[in-house]
């Protein structure tokens, strides 16, 4: 295959990969606790016959943007936002522990405390299960979950669990295909008593919609340029064939 055609084809493919990252970020601009994926390009040599004199760009996602999103006050007792650095521990579908900043919580008909994605919230001893029926749920700054049983007087409040809050360091985390973060080592992070919650609020997405839109426009222009390069390679090939027929 002509090297020019290969480089242009590879560039177009990587532009499409970058577009997918930006499109996913834009689609989650309103997802509570979402952290935007970062994209970067790395130069790769095109090996083949002769010396590797051509290079192409390979798109990769090295990490996520861990900047905090905007805090949105809701006034709802089961909404919590992590203050500063830290994560809420949840149970992933595979049964393992994962971490999220999504703090819009609820409990199902069995009393399991879950976030808005249906993921069970972890306590010190596994998923948190509330004793039903209950009239009111409160979550303190240090993650203690307290409930008022149905029919109890206003002053009756019982502590039932503590939400596991961790701060393993963002550089040690990676995002899984389910959108949850995990330690690169595969281990579970220990609870950190210094991580606090803000009750009655949730953290919004940190996606900058304007930046992602501009990035998508730029990537589309680059894609068009790569397609033009492929057409140029085709025209050069036709001209070479014509010269060969003449000779």
UniProtKB/TrEMBL annotation:
Q: Where is the Flagellar basal body rod protein N-terminal domain?
A: 5-35
Origin species:
Shewanella fidelis
Checking NCBIfam families in the record gives: FlgEFG_subfam, flgF, PRK12640.1
* Top-rank taxon, per record: Bacteria
Q: Per the database record, which ranges form the Flagellar hook protein FlgE/F/G-like D1 domain?
A: 81-147
- GO CC annotation: bacterial-type flagellum basal body, rod
Signal sequence annotation: none
| Stated family | Belongs to the flagella basal body rod proteins family.
In which compartments does the protein localize? Bacterial flagellum basal body
Taxonomic lineage is: Bacteria, Pseudomonadati, Pseudomonadota, Gammaproteobacteria, Alteromonadales
Cytoplasm among the record's keywords? no
What positions does the domain Flagellar basal-body/hook protein C-terminal occupy?
199-241
Instruction: Tell me what this protein is called.
Output: Flagellar basal-body rod protein FlgF
- Keywords from the UniProt entry: Bacterial flagellum, Cell projection, Cilium, Flagellum
Asked if the record carries the keyword Ribosomal protein, the reply is: no
InterPro entries attached here?
Flag_bb_rod_N (IPR001444), Flagellar_basal_body_rod_CS (IPR019776), Flagellar_FlgE/F/G (IPR020013), Flg_bb/hook_C_dom (IPR010930), FlgE/F/G-like (IPR037925), FlgF (IPR012836), LlgE_F_G-like_D1 (IPR053967)
Major localization class: other
GO term, biological process aspect, one: bacterial-type flagellum-dependent swarming motility
Please describe the quaternary structure of this protein. Answer: The basal body constitutes a major portion of the flagellar organelle and consists of five rings (E,L,P,S, and M) mounted on a central rod. The rod consists of about 26 subunits of FlgG in the distal portion, and FlgB, FlgC and FlgF are thought to build up the proximal portion of the rod with about 6 subunits each.
